[in-house]
Amino acid sequence: MEAGGRGILKWMPEARAASGADDVLRHATVVDELLRSEAHISLVMDTDWRRQHVGRWAHPESEAQKVTVDNDRIAAIGRHLNPEAAYGGFLGLARFSAKGAETLKANYPGVVEKFDGRPFRKAPIVRRAYLTDMSQELID
User: Which pTM value belongs to this model?
Assistant: First the structure.
């Protein structure tokens, strides 16, 4: 995975479809850039993510899906990361090409089978895992 410009995180070049959180869709330039991404899997992040959590009690900074990078590559993603080490916050917007979707679909059933009824990454059970948990699985 590599960290791209203006908050787009990419791994596996070439992407085609988008999915994500409603509150992000108002940022047309981010969505436009995501749709132009050539990565197979792209995730959108906000490098000024902490500003979004100031004074929030319902979704404090500790609950943000944080991202760390190493040499322009995603190193880790999830709520458990140290906020001081975070490069940005994942906004819940992702895009998958056919190949990226196939990668996710090819890996997910094995993860569910292996961890069925048990913790997976930071999720209490695999069926309650977040996209960030599966993303970290693919990164590793």
Answer: 0.76
